[in-house]
Design a protein that fits this description.
The complex is a heterodimer of chains A (about 325) and B (about 220). Helices cover about 30% and strands about 20% of the residues of chain A. Chain A is built from 14 helices and 14 strands. Chain B is α/β, with parallel strands linked by helices and about 220 residues long. Chain B folds into two domains: about 150 residues, HAD superfamily/HAD-like (Rossmann fold); about 60 residues, no CATH class. Helices cover about 55% and strands about 15% of the residues of chain B. Chain B contains eleven helices and eight strands. Classes of the chains: A alpha+beta (about 325), B alpha/beta (about 220). At the A-B interface, helix 9 of A face helix 10, strand 8 and helix 11 of B.
Chain lengths: ~325, ~220
């Protein structure tokens, strides 16, 4: 394992000071299910200084806010989300999605913040190849085995898919993220926070959180009346694997008429892929058994599969059809 | 990698899809090669350059043979289809202050025709060909670097062949793999190019990343 120094700050301000001191060679450490694997694999990009935020109070909670929404501390364990009665009552789709992340053991360690901001799981990066995210200038996934963990929607230097499921499930509810920064608190939508391959602080990452910023919480607005939501996921194994394709979808219904929708695919692109063409198509349509087939016909027209992953697009379209069928029952 | 000042471009394989038949035909008519043209124009082209390079020291081409080669290269240019991302990518790179230089082993007539047919002149700083360089492969690269006073380690050469990687190394510039064919690119990646892109439209981000990395030291 790569040698590291660990700080254990007790306040967010202290953590930000430490992160600012060490620049990009430091990283926030919470659940460790992504970070420790990168350290164990001795990746060049892995940090040398860990800022353990587990001792900081007020980062691990699930509470109802004044507007009737829910705020979740970024260090809250995924298992706690899966067991939350409050979330089950207000957003059962999110509970279902979290229950499909990884394995029960890992959900006991992983945090919501870690799931949202995790590094990609491309086998070439994780295997120590000198790729764009690991000190090199070439994407091995684009030319090698790209059947599981690479984008079928094009790329920006790196072709790995964004692996998190939490974002795919949160975006349909217009969830927002709160970040602590040296300049004070900053708020972004989850969609804005995870826009896919971005050049941030001299490196490529899936999110726009800078080296000296900390995701502190996620706020989900109150559930709107008439909203139905579903989460679908296909993965190579029954548990403990990332999505080959997933879909987080919410429909705002009046009777059976769709007034608004959010359609977000996971596992197929470098970001949670919001399919606005389908959203526009669904607007004003009546939820019916035929709607799935019609929506599939307009979905993912911008697909740009690599050599081995065109099947991801078929899977994603299948999830769209099954998701709409499920919401019609 | 240091901040890059110039991008050296070989039209064949990097800016356009060329047919392989005319390059094979030159090899047949001028060097007595046999067989059928292969599927990859780039490989046919660079194999031909190897033949031209060898002949330069042993038995230089006479005027008639040069004319045949020129005509067939122009035929290849006329049948080439430029990749759709080339013009927008070159426009963006130029606006970023990157010097864009055609450094090609094509004849000057063929290179000039390619640039004119595809309206690329407005993006390019200069054009160097085998005619000006007096040789092929690394010769046009060296010629361009010398004429433009560009330090070799501040230049990149885009290529999709092993011979192209070797030519770049001979000239001291960074060989960047154009990963047009994933299987071929996988094989070429083992020859340690300095980098690789799936498409020319990724080059502006490549330069932005380098700029950010160099700025951070």
């Amino acid at each position: 394992m790569k040698k590291v120094s660990i700080y254990r700050p007790t306040t967010v301000d202290e953590a930000i000071q430490i992160l600012s001191l060490h620049g990009t060679s430091a990283s926030v450490y919470a659940g460790g299910t992504d970070l420790l694997v990168r350290l164990k694999n001795r990746l060049e990009q892995a940090p040398s200084y860990l800022v353990d935020i587990k001792k900081i109070d007020h980062l691990r909670y699930i509470k109802e806010d004044e507007q009737g929404g829910v705020e979740i501390g970024a260090a809250t364990k995924l298992a706690e989300l899966a067991d939350s009665r409050l979330l089950q009552e207000k957003y059962p789709m999110i509970v279902e999605a979290v229950g499909k992340i990884s394995s029960p053991e890992l959900r006991n360690a992983s945090t919501l913040g870690g799931d949202l901001l995790q590094e990609v799981w491309c086998q070439y990066l994780r295997g120590g190849y000198s790729c764009w995210r690991n000190g090199g200038y070439l994407c091995y996934g684009a030319i090698g085995d790209n059947s599981y963990y690479h984008s079928a929607m094009g790329g920006r230097l790196c072709y790995a898919v964004y692996p998190g499921d939490a974002a795919t499930a949160l975006i349909p509810f217009d969830a927002r993220a709160k970040l602590a920064t040296p300049q004070g608190e900053k708020e972004l939508s989850i969609e804005q926070m995870v826009p896919g391959d971005m050049l941030v602080d001299g490196k490529i990452q899936s999110h726009v959180v800078r080296y000296n910023e900390i995701l502190t919480s996620v706020v989900i607005p109150p559930p709107k009346p008439g909203v139905r939501a579903s989460f679908e996921k296909l993965r190579p194994r029954g548990v403990w694997d990332f999505a080959m394709a997933s879909l987080g979808m919410s429909l705002q219904l009046r009777d059976k008429t769709i007034e608004d929708s959010r359609v977000v695919f996971g596992g197929i692109s470098g970001k949670p892929y919001r399919e606005k063409t389908v959203e526009a198509f669904l607007k004003g349509k009546t939820l019916s058994p035929e709607l799935g087939e019609q929506a599939v016909a307009v979905a993912l027209a911008d697909a740009a599969p690599l050599k081995y992953n065109a099947t991801k697009i078929d899977m994603a379209k299948g999830l769209l059809a099954s998701g709409l069928a499920r919401l019609n029952t | 990698m240091r901040q890059i000042e110039a991008l050296l471009l070989e039209p064949v394989g990097c800016l356009a899809e060329f047919p392989s038949a005319p390059f094979h035909e030159i090899a047949v008519r001028l060097f007595g090669r046999k067989g059928k043209p292969g599927p990859s124009a780039s490989r046919s082209y660079w194999r031909l350059l190897n033949l031209i390079d060898s002949a330069a020291t042993e038995k230089p081409l006479n005027a008639e043979k040069k004319r045949i080669a020129d005509n067939l290269e122009v035929e290849a240019v006329d049948a080439a289809s430029i990749y759709e991302d080339v013009a927008p990518a070159l426009a963006e790179l130029k606006s970023m202050g990157i010097r864009l230089v055609v450094a090609s082993s094509l004849s000057h007539r063929a290179a000039a025709r390619f640039i004119e047919r595809n309206s690329l002149g407005e993006f390019l700083s200069s054009v160097y060909t085998r005619d000006q360089a007096g040789g092929v492969k690394s010769a046009p690269l060296l010629s361009a670097l010398r004429a433009l006073s560009i330090p070799p380690d501040k230049a990149m050469f885009l290529t999709d062949t092993l011979e192209g990687i070797k030519a770049a190394r001979e000239a001291g510039v960074h060989p960047i793999l154009m990963m047009n064919d994933p299987d071929e690119a996988q094989r070429l990646a083992m020859h340690n190019p300095a980098g690789g892109v799936v498409s020319l439209h990724e080059m502006p981000d490549f330069f932005r990343l380098l700029a950010a990395q160099n700025q951070r030291g």
